[in-house]
Design goal:
Number of strands: 0
Structural class: mainly alpha
Number of domains: 2
Order of helices and strands: HHHHHHHHHHH
Shape: globular
Strand content: under 5%
Radius of gyration: 18 Å
Distance between the termini: 21 Å
Number of helices: 11
């Protein structure tokens, strides 16, 4: 569990925190130990008090940092091809939708209590992914000829699309049941960042010499979760 309450990042400028966030994200993708406090601090400054001018400046750094990931999610959406729009335009709208949501509900960030910065950060990213989905579906609804299938919609998400307060509980239930860092890396890469096993193997070639190991980890974890009745109770709580 990592707490950021007394972390040095709290005294850094927005630019320095954003730089640290970028560096720590790079370390994560290299399969190295990373510190989630830099990225979480950036989100907190941007969204905890979104009506302040200082928050808007922090949001500009968040927007720059996560636009590429939101664009990847937009392109990966099963109905992206039917929107007739550019993925970076949809990504920008998703980020705007997220900011507006927090602006209209100033206390919303309290739904992400800082007990574990890594879990909170992943819940925020999952919320952004939900915003991408919402923007894509809004684009589809402009065309009355389109009738999306519910199965394809839900397939876009690995975590429940429930209220954001439930997302932190979801990830906490999941992470408590993982055996090691390799399982966490595979689940994060597949279900947070939407990477396919071969893409994961390419990013983490030193850790995963062949793609079959990634498939085995995924299947072993999912099979273990299916047998875990306590997990079902945890997620439904």
């Amino acid at each position: 569990m990592s707490s950021c309450a007394d972390h040095p990042v709290t005294s850094l400028s927005d630019a320095a925190a954003a730089h640290g966030c970028r560096r720590q994200t790079e370390q994560y993708w290299l399969g190295q130990a990373f510190d989630p406090c830099f990225c979480y601090e950036l989100w907190q400054r941007a969204l905890a008090q979104p009506r302040q001018a200082t928050s808007k400046r922090a949001w500009a750094f968040v927007h720059h940092q996560y636009l590429r990931q939101a664009t990847i999610w937009a392109k990966a959406h099963p109905y992206f091809g039917q929107t007739g729009q550019e993925p970076d335009d949809l990504a920008a709208l998703a980020l705007e939708k997220m900011w507006v949501t927090f602006y209209r509900q100033p206390d919303k960030f309290n739904q992400f209590p800082l007990e574990d910065a890594g879990i909170c950060l992943k819940s925020l990213l999952q919320f952004l992914k939900m915003c991408v989905h919402s923007i894509v579906m809004d684009a589809l609804r402009q065309d009355e000829q389109t009738a999306p299938l519910e199965q394809a919609e839900t397939a876009f998400f690995a975590a429940p699309t429930a209220e954001t307060a439930d997302l932190e509980a979801f990830w906490r239930c999941i992470y408590e049941r993982l055996n090691d860092e390799e399982e966490r890396l595979v689940l994060d890469a597949m279900f947070i960042y939407g990477l396919k096993p071969r893409q994961i193997q390419s990013r983490y070639a030193a850790r995963f010499p062949d793609v079959q190991r990634i498939y085995r980890i995924k299947e072993n974890v999912l099979a273990r979760f299916r047998r875990d009745e306590a997990l079902r109770d945890c997620l439904e709580a």
